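Structural prep section.
Before we set up the soaks we want a predicted structure of the protein with iron/sulfur cluster in place, mainly to decide which crystallisation condition to try first. Input record follows.
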Amino acid sequence: MKEILSGNEAIARGAFEAGCRVACAYPGTPSTEILENTITYKEIDSSWAPNEKVALEVAIGASFGGGRALCTMKHVGVNVAADPLFTLSYTGVNGGLVLVTADDPEMHSSQNEQDNRNYARFAKVPMLEPADSRECKEFTRLAFELSEQYDTPVMLRTTTRISHSKSLVELGERVTDLPEPKLVKNAAKLVMLPGNARLRHPLVEERMAQLSRDGSTMAINRLEMRDKAVGIITSGVCYQYVREVLPTASTLKLGMVHPLPHDLIREFAAKVETLYVVEELDPFIEEQVRAMGIGVTGKEIFSLCGELTPGRIRTAFGLPEAAASPAEKLPGRPPNMCPGCPHRGVFFVLNQLKAYVTGDIGCYTLGFMPPLSAMDTCICMGASVGMATGVTKVVSKEEQKRVVAVIGDATFRHTGINGLLDMVHNQAPATLVILDNRITAMTGRQDNPASGFTLMDEPTSRIDFPLLCKALGVRHIRVINPLDLEQTRRVLQEEMNRPEPSVIITDKPCVLVKREGVFQKGPVYSVEVETCTGCRACLRIGCPAIEWRPAGDGGRKGTAWIDPLVCTGCDVCRQLCKFDAIGRAK
Amino acid sequence: MSGRITNILLVGVGGQGILLASEILSETCMLAGFDVKKSEIHGKSQRGGSVVSHVRYGRQVFSPLVPEGEGDILFGFELMETCRSLPLLKPGGTVVANDLKIAPPSVLMGQESYPEGLEDRIEALFPGFLLVDGQGLASEAGNPRAANTVLLGAVSRRLDIAERYWLEALEKMVPKKALEVNKQAFMMGRAL
Ligand SMILES: Cc1ncc(C[n+]2csc(CCOP(=O)(O)OP(=O)(O)O)c2C)c(N)n1
Ligand code: SF4
Ligand code: SF4
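Run finished without errors. Recording the tokens verbatim:
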């Protein structure tokens, strides 16, 4: 049977067909939908971990226990999981282990565009790179087999255009002849102390050399001879663009991008007149081909930055550009926090208090944009807390009072807790605000230990943030309603002035939480036109439900208007109107 | 069908249901026996940013992205977003646009106004383009929320795929209780 699947759906399907038993991940665009699809197969135990390191460790445990295990994350997640990954390379596996890294060239929804093919080389593990959804499924199956055959974790790399594009996939059956998992002790292989690790390292090098040799005859590394004038080595979505733009060129399509199949590359290079590498981001393949002593063109004509597109490849090869109409000058349409988002009031107040906000990653990062304009840094998940501590170490006592770290509940659990431990242990006089909206909102509302539900939708314990902070040694812990601007301002001011670490926890859910009894829509608000003076105070929170309506006839300045279909009744705008023009709609 | 690929772009604002419309479209292409690929960026859609979805079908499709300036049909759910994506179309391409206007943040806050005369700008570049009162027709069909299906109907007339595949895809993808209204909305659009 054929279905149209996204790359992510196809990877989930591939894991199912491969007999995978455990899938563990941390959400992150563009990888998130893989686990959201493995849950549709009851044979796979799917779960969200609090961060990528834990996710990989769960998968390693499952593999050592004898089951096939899948672990998925976005590219920056591998930075977090790198510690176990590098030593897992030495131990190898028991049940097959596949680690998916979903890269994001062009940074459609990421803070950097690191090229994770470098991790495969750095950690000395093989990496497969599919070029469409059919290959996503097939390569996932193959990755599990290679993992067991070569005793190695296998990385599968996608990019946003592979993860989020859909194409036709032929479905297969789940393999059933895998051995039953059971506990087997094997310390020499699995206990990586120096004595054991020294014995494992040469095996790793042999494994990679063997894979490179075998790669030349693997079906997924495919030599396609067409016109011999131009030969292109490529992989992933770039292969599709090359076929589109240069249909007559010969191609060496690499399904395994690490280790490279040297013999096959030599054979291809000898057959074509001019050799090119078409790859996004780093000259990963190009440099290795060059190191083999083969002349090749790559980054001379392609950028090191951003993703490739058919048009960019056309330009690089000097082909004529399509005759398109010119771009129109139009107002932009950036994303915005939802109407009634509990984060909005906090940033409004932080702006008023002229706080220096070390920020973090989540929906609340939008708090850096006007009109809220109240976030001053954003580096990576969890960074806000340690950075606030660092800032207080160098600025004056007066300026220390302005330093506030802001972090979401999911991000706090991910890698923020360690930062708070440090802030308390070293008594940094900063304030930490934990925005507990009960969900991982940014990546599409995944459950987490703050929501009290698992990925499989089963109720579980809910993290008690005040108690956790208390246990870490925080002496000043305040819980506030972020929709109450007066309370938010008062508490923030008090804690900012305090020359000790303190934590403020906001307690209102994301408006998009669907689970019953969590978010409750309030009564819709409206503006009384006669009373509105046109002062625009309510526009300073940037709620998408509030619209400025300029007066047509010149007399008055204009008035605000609230869209009743969009307003969620959070009450924040009412608190901003000095003239009592905003109230519950009658 | 020869080796020719048909390139369709669906554009609008996050939350308008563009992803579902492009799913129905690609399902239809598959049912009609074509190779099909579709691509879009998730994530921004949730919080009201611009959304562009690419659907390509034919005998064999390579790139999931419509090459720049080679779009055959632009299917716009919102007027300003339709205008923004015109450069993706080939000269002489077809534009089917919903007449809906959704104000972006800068307009809501009164810093800019929603641009005037967008219809004329589109008309100047793509004469004879189809402007659809999606909401109006959908209300006639029984539910203003079926506006996307009206547009889908209008687009369907301009593609070489038999009606039964469209209806089959609707039956597969639209929840049962909304199916009749959507079929009606589709047929109204198809008559345009
Ligand atoms: C290492 C890493 N993993 C995953 C992500 C993707 N990601 C961005 S924000 C976020 C979580 C946001 O949740 P939360 O902190 O609760 O804030 P909210 O969006 O709910 O406001 C995730 C998982 C990332 N940027 N970096
Ligand atoms: S999804 Fe939730 S947290 Fe994100 S902007 Fe909307 S209300 Fe706020
Ligand atoms: S009450 Fe005011 S601020 Fe809250 S959602 Fe409605 S219009 Fe927006």
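Observations: Chain B is about 40% helix and 20% strand.
Flagged for discussion at group meeting.
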